[in-house]
Specification:
The complex is a heterodimer.
Chain A lengths: L4 E4 L5 E5 L5 E2 L5 H6 L4 H5 L22 E2 L2 E2 L4 H13 L4 E5 L2 H4 L23 H7 L9 E5 L4 H14 L9 E3 L3 H8 L6 H18 L6 E4 L1 H6 L3 H20 L5 H4 L3 E7 L3 H23 L11 E5 L11 H15 L4 E4 L11 H18 L12 H23 L3 H6 L2 H19 L25 H17 L2 H16 L5 H9 L4 H12 L9
Parallel strand pairs in A: 4-12, 5-6, 6-7, 7-8, 9-10, 10-11, 11-12
Antiparallel strand pairs in A: 1-2, 2-3
Helix pairs in contact in A: 3-5, 6-20, 8-10, 10-12, 10-15, 12-13, 12-15, 13-14, 19-20, 19-21
Chain B lengths: L6 E5 L8 H12 L3 E4 L6 H10 L4 E6 L4 H14 L6 E6 L3 H9 L4 E4 L4 H11 L4
Parallel strand pairs in B: 1-2, 1-3, 3-4, 4-5
The chains are: A alpha/beta, B alpha/beta.
Chain lengths: ~550, ~130
């Protein structure tokens, strides 16, 4: 999904191209267009690696360093996930991106009634430190960085990661983890929320504050425009919502007496790549520039590295189709190319079987090979920001910047992102656009190959990743053994201290680390917060 | 019955939080003149059944993206049977592989509409199968 709208005449000549963000593309661009948008080389572009970083955050782009490939991986038991991690690393993957099953993401242990049928299904099941000890066995935690795709209980999982690293003998200062930890976007797009908005944002603040002091190589938050875009917003809104969410987290930590400069360098972003290629490239170039400018102007950040918009720019699942699934292999390759032309430091790609199931081993490897072909054969590493100076791309980048700022203003007007999410304003906007887009797709107003045009041909049989009920039984067995064998008094004491810290508004992270090390379960720790904070009630909007 | 709007409960059972499809379909059914109640996320199956009874709906539509559609639907159909709600039209949508469609029908699901289904097909199916229409 996510393609532009084309107005054509009866002979198929394109009369108008309207990008999702609302910008119209002209048939021809000249220096006059650059003049019309007020393009200034020094101010808008400058050298790669120099403010405002439109071209790249690195002076030499991919020439000095290839991008990190980080396919989203994890399923079943920790044993299986560990095997898949090692397989992907042996095939040249350079970072991990850990998928957790839904019970873990929602703070339920594998034996909770809500977990039934879901244990190990869409990611790995984690109940306690014991599971992390298995999942990360023989992985060099000082060399490989791990994205932890978890939000509502990201604080628990970051504490768990530190605990497993220390258990394996690594110093916490050398480990690199990026918990997703973006709860506001869960409330807009992905739905894995537990606690109400305010305490949930406080938990994000606690992890940022803690990482700033104790985990210097960890990126405590990965702000996700990705899922909001998946849920239906435009590319310009994706960036503006992500920035407004980031400001909400920054403000929380600044209110504790720190300056943004001290911690904002640890922020990363998770942004989406699909749809119109030019809009995508312009989006990322505009985003890099705006982030640096806004941090400088709004928060007085001076340190160059703290101004970098870093992150994972990944090929979006919403672009993939159920119909004619082999087409998704091509789509994935073009998305990967768009990511490379956009200067992504880290990337991931939804696999061609995305619309069916979580990726099979074969599909995951194919995505990895797509990146490798691009970087090692096609020449995407040859020069930094190869589209720079294009009349079209520079004009579009300026126009995207304006659109992003317009959308940010809308959120400012309703009182900022915390308010906009609590009231359902953003959810309503996203749901409305998702519906309108779907209608256009069904009317044929936008084209999706194999879906509403060129639909002839036989669909391939997709080999499905198989779910095994036995994983759940095995997890529950291990959980029972754990509870019988651990020092239950130490667990109880740890949880009582955690509860007190949560109530007293102390930073909960050191208490979580203590509880993790005592083998308290994810469900036990999450329940402490449920007791203290209550649960989020979502506004019913569609 | 002819003046009564068709009442539909669009439900998100279980832990899956992907609600784009559910909301888009809910919106389309409302546009088609139906009364739509959306449960919101993270609902238990008994909770959904209770809501269906309280709201006196004609249709229960489950949206499931996580792959857990078989166990969840089985649980729902058991309750539909024990609570004598056989008159309710049960439909399932989401990430549903073709091979599971027959099994869902065996469980008693009348309509299965995987991602990519057209609004008119879903609306048409409901109008055709809700008694009195």
């Amino acid at each position: 999904m996510g393609v532009a709208t084309y107005v054509k005449d009866e002979r198929d000549a394109i009369k108008e191209v309207i990008l999702q963000s609302g910008i119209k593309i002209k048939p021809v661009y000249t220096p006059d267009d650059l003049a019309a948008v007020g393009f200034d080389y020094e101010k808008d572009l400058a050298y790669p690696g120099e403010f405002p970083f439109t071209r790249s955050i690195h002076p030499l782009g991919y020439r000095s360093r290839n991008w990190t490939t980080r396919q989203y991986t994890g399923f079943g038991t920790p044993e299986q996930t560990n095997e898949r991690f090692k397989l992907m690393i042996s095939h040249g993957q350079t970072g991990l991106n850990v998928a957790f099953d839904l019970p873990t993401q929602m703070g339920y242990d594998s034996d909770h009634p809500m977990a039934e049928g879901e244990v190990g299904r869409v990611g790995m099941a984690v109940d306690s430190l014991r599971d992390f000890e298995i999942a990360f066995k023989e992985i060099r935690l000082d060399k490989i960085g791990s994205g932890l795709t978890i939000n509502a209980v990201a604080s628990v999982m970051l504490a768990m990661y530190q605990s497993v690293a220390e258990k394996f003998g690594y110093d916490k200062k050398v480990i690199s983890a990026t918990p997703q930890n973006d709860i506001l976007k869960e409330m807009v797009g992905r739905g894995a929320w537990i606690y109400p908005v305010e305490p949930a944002v406080r938990l994000v603040g606690d992890t940022i504050e803690y990482a700033m002091k104790e985990l210097p190589r960890c990126n405590p938050v990965s702000v996700c425009g990705y899922h909001i875009r998946e849920s239906g917003c435009t590319p310009a809104q994706e960036i503006s919502y992500a920035f407004m969410i980031a400001f909400a987290y920054i403000d929380n930590v600044v209110s504790r007496g720190y300056t943004a400069e001290e911690f904002v360098g640890g922020f990363t972003f998770n942004l989406n790549v699909y749809g119109n290629m030019w809009e995508t490239v312009a989006k990322f170039r505009a985003a890099r520039k705006l982030w640096a400018k806004l941090l400088r102007d709004k928060y007085g950040v001076k340190d160059k590295k703290a101004l970098f918009l870093r992150g994972i720019f990944g090929g979006g699942g919403s672009g993939m189709t159920k119909q004619q699934p082999e087409n998704n292999i091509m789509r994935g390759a073009y998305y990967a190319m768009a990511a490379a032309l956009s200067g992504a430091q880290t990337t991931a790609l939804c696999s061609f079987d995305e619309a069916y199931t979580i990726p099979t081993e074969r599909a995951a490897l194919l995505s990895l090979r797509t990146f490798q072909i691009l970087m090692d054969e096609i020449g995407l590493r040859d020069t930094v920001d190869p589209l720079a100076g294009s009349y079209f791309v520079e004009t579009l980048t300026k126009q995207m910047e304006e659109k992003i700022l317009e959308e940010m203003e809308r959120i400012e007007k309703v009182g900022g992102m915390v308010e906009a999410v609590a009231s359902g304003y953003v959810q309503r906007e996203v749901a409305r656009q998702a519906y309108e887009y779907e209608k256009k797709l069904q009317d044929g107003a936008v084209t999706k190959v194999g879906v509403n045009k060129y639909t002839e041909g036989v669909d391939m049989e997709v080999e499905l990743h198989e779910y095994n009920e036995e994983w759940s039984r095995q997890q529950i067995r291990r959980l029972k053994e754990l509870k019988a064998g651990r020092d239950n008094r130490a667990v109880k004491e740890g949880l009582i201290s955690l509860e007190k810290a949560a109530k007293d508004k102390k930073n909960i992270m050191p208490f979580l680390v203590d509880s993790c090390k005592a083998y308290a379960t994810v469900g036990e720790m999450a329940d402490v917060f449920r007791t203290v904070f209550g649960e989020h009630r979502e506004p019913s909007i569609f | 019955m002819s003046n009564r709007k068709i009442r539909v409960l669009v439900a998100k059972p279980g832990l899956d939080g992907h609600d784009r499809g559910a909301k888009v379909v809910a919106h389309a059914l409302r546009e088609a003149g139906m009364e739509v109640i959306y449960t919101g996320l993270h609902q238990t199956v008994p909770g959904i059944v209770n809501q269906a009874i309280q709201e006196d709906v004609d249709v229960i539509g489950l949206s499931i993206m996580s792959g857990a559609h078989i166990p969840i639907t089985r649980k729902l159909m058991d309750l539909v049977t024990t609570k004598d709600l056989k008159d309710k039209l049960v439909m399932v949508g989401g990430v549903i592989p073709q091979r599971d469609v027959a099994l869902l029908r065996q469980l008693g699901v009348r309509g299965v509409f995987p991602g990519g289904s057209r609004f008119e097909d879903i609306v048409g199916f409901i109008k055709e199968h809700v008694p009195g229409n």
